[in-house]
Design goal:
Distance between the termini: 41 Å
CATH class of the largest domain: Alpha Beta
Structural class: alpha/beta
Largest sheet: 10 strands, mixed
Order of helices and strands: HEHEHEHEHEHEHEHEEHHEH
Number of domains: 2
CATH topology of the largest domain: D-Maltodextrin-Binding Protein, domain 2
Helix content: 40-55%
Shape: globular
CATH superfamily of the largest domain: Bordetella uptake gene, domain 1
Strand content: 15-25%
Number of helices: 11
CATH architecture of the largest domain: 3-Layer(aba) Sandwich
Length: 327
């Protein structure tokens, strides 16, 4: 059995790994903020903005926080906005930035002068698994068929997905590496979003597509796209798609989203923000919104999230180097 002491030790290790001073049980606590600045390093309407708006809805509806101010700074998967957050919010205990796995890769690929290690981890919140699909008329009937074709001639198998270096590209590279194929040999076609990628798939312009399940779900249900595999650790309720692991590809990946505090945040202010988000996650509105939006809750608080983030930075840096997108 894992003791409470082990859990605490693991959490403190996560804080240390990210250069954070661990807060102690029973230490002085900062007064919880009565309003929040929510910083979204992306355009309004996108996934990070939806996460921020849902946080606002849940906190307001459950009576936890009433006043909010939103700020958007879109561009380059967060590589434009995050430096602004780092430069302008230092030490502010009422500021939260929404971000996720895409930002980890974007900062590395864009050689950003800032790192997610500069932020204060507050909570990992949600995750979306990726799905690999083909046109319903494709001769590739299973993941094994795709694997066989890819191993026979990687250059003849084209993968449609989002931006280069993003989650979709990373998964394609991880699959290649797991199969013993050099990741740089992946013929990846980057599109600006799920819509253009779908059009390419439906028009037989590419061999297969990679994206979050939500992007392709309607076309899968309509029988226009065939799902070959999902990047989950296990079968997902209500989604009849086998995992990569089930089919001999030892990979799992999900596109996670979370919230971060400002750089240089005092431990008591970090604890106050963690407490606010924990109340939200345990409240009825957040649970209802997860179900409504078909989001998977993967909550990790504070230092535990910090430890996870450290491992993600290392993992994604490695695969981006394999893809030739990082040095």
């Amino acid at each position: 059995m894992i003791s409470r002491r082990d859990v605490v030790k693991a959490g403190l290790a996560g804080s240390a790994a990210l250069g954070l001073a661990p807060y102690q049980v029973g230490s002085a606590r900062a007064q919880a903020p009565t309003s929040l600045q929510i910083f979204v390093p992306a355009a309004p309407g996108g996934g990070w903005d939806q996460t921020g708006r849902t946080i606002e809805l849940a906190l307001r509806t459950d009576g936890i926080i009433k006043d909010f101010k939103f700020e958007h700074a879109p561009g380059a998967g967060g590589a434009v906005g995050m430096p602004k957050f780092v430069a302008t919010k230092k030490g502010q205990g009422d500021a939260l930035m929404v971000g996720g796995m895409v930002m980890v890769g974007a900062l590395i690929a864009n050689k950003s002068p800032v790192s997610m290690r500069d932020l204060t981890p507050i909570a990992r919140l949600t995750g979306e698994f990726e799905v690999i699909v083909v046109n319903a008329a494709s001769p590739l009937k299973s993941m094994k068929d795709l694997v066989d074709a890819f191993k026979a001639d990687p250059g003849k198998v084209s993968w449609a997905g989002g931006s280069a270096g993003g989650t979709d590209h990373i998964l394609a590279g991880m699959i290649a590496k797991a199969l013993g194929v050099e990741a740089k040999r992946v013929s990846y076609v980057a599109y600006s979003g799920g819509g253009p990628a779908q059009a390419a798939l439906l028009g037989n312009q590419v061999t297969c597509g990679v994206s979050g399940y939500g992007e392709f779900s309607e076309q899968i249900k309509a029988g226009k796209l065939r799902a070959l595999a999902i990047s989950a650790d296990k079968r997902q309720d209500g989604i009849d798609i086998p995992t990569l692991k089930e089919q001999g590809v030892d990979i799992e990946l999900f596109n996670w989203r979370g919230v971060f505090g400002a750089p240089g945040l005092a431990p008591d202010k970090q604890a106050a923000l963690v407490s606010i988000i924990e109340k939200m996650v345990k409240g009825p509105t957040w649970a209802a919104e997860l179900k409504k939006k078909d989001w998977t809750g993967i909550y990790l608080p504070g230092a535990e999230f910090g430890k996870y983030l450290e491992s993600e930075i290392a993992r994604i840096t490695g695969i981006l180097k394999d893809l030739g997108l990082a040095t």
